[in-house]
Every structure is written in C-alpha cells, then in structure tokens.
Amino acid sequence: MIIQRIEEKLEEKDLMQKDLALFIGVGPSTVGNWISRGTDPPARYLIHICNFLGVSLEYLLTGEENTVEQIGTNADLSTDESDLLSYFRVLSRRNQRAILVQMENMINQEKEQAATKQGKYLA
Predict the structure, then answer these.
(1) Planar angle of CA 76, 79, 81, nearest 5 degrees
(2) What are the residues whose beta carbons fall under 8 Å from the beta carbon of 63, sequence distance 6 or more?
(3) Do residues 21 and 50 lie in contact, with contact meaning Cβ atoms separated by under 8 Å?
(4) DSSP the chain
(5) Taking the model in full, what pTM does it have?
(6) Topology of the domain covering 2-90
(7) Residues 35, 9: Cα–Cα separation, whole Å
C-alpha cells in the first residue's frame, strides 16, 4: 500500500508526519488518519508527497524504482526536470502527447527567433 511506503520513508528519513502535512497543505491529523487507518492519500497529493520524500511516483505506487537504463540517474536531473518527469508520468497518454507537441512547437519558435537574430547580426 502507498501509505505503508510513505510511513517507511518518513521513518527512514527521520521526518515527521506534521512536516509532510504542512508541505502538502493538509492538517497533521489528516496524515495521521491515513496512517492509522491504513488508507492511501488522494491522488492529488501524490506528486507533492513524492517531492517531500524524494522518491519517484513509481516507487510510491509500486514500491519499485526505475532502473538507470530506463531514465538515467536522478542525479542527472535538476529539481525542475524531476518535477516535470513526475507530472508527465501522471498524465494520460493523450495528454502526454499534447505536451510533447507543445514543447516541439516552443523549440521550433525559439530556433526561428535565434535564426532571425543571427540574420540581423550578419546583415
């Protein structure tokens, strides 16, 4: 269960339930109730919990981590990159594709702007 992995990570990292609650924006009793009742937190909190505990969403959901072959080491990623990857994985395949198309469009726009600037400097 997700809540068991959360509790294990809190203990492992010597973190308090109230700190997690503050970080994700709920009352301390809410986290305490999840743990005492053995209920998993709502999905809307999972990414924030992952960020607080420094774990992947995959770990929280399955108890397994990605291998280096799958995504490279997390040390390679900035905080923003890690957040983007976590958010991306939560999206449906359709929305993931929409994000990729949007990013491709933004990259093309930046390339065009850079080429225009370079053309002005050469003229």
Answers:
(1) 65
(2) 5
(3) no
(4) -HHHHHHHHHHHTT--HHHHHHHHTS-HHHHHHHHHHTPPPPGGGHHHHHHHHT--HHHHHHS-PPPHHHH--GGGS-HHHHHHHHHHHHS-HHHHHHHHHHHHHHHHHHHHHHHHHHHHHH-
(5) 0.54
(6) 434 Repressor (Amino-terminal Domain) (1.10.260)
(7) 13
102: left (phi over 0), alpha (psi -120 to 50) or beta: alpha
* Interatomic CA distance for residues 63 and 99, integer angstroms: 27
Angle between helices 46-53 and 79-90 in degrees, nearest 10: 150
Hey, where are the domains in the chain? 2-90, 92-123
Length of the chain: 123
pLDDT tens digit string along 43-100?
A: 999 999 998 888 888 899 988 876 444 444 556 777 788 778 878 877 788 888 899 8
To which residue do tokens 């308090």 refer?
16
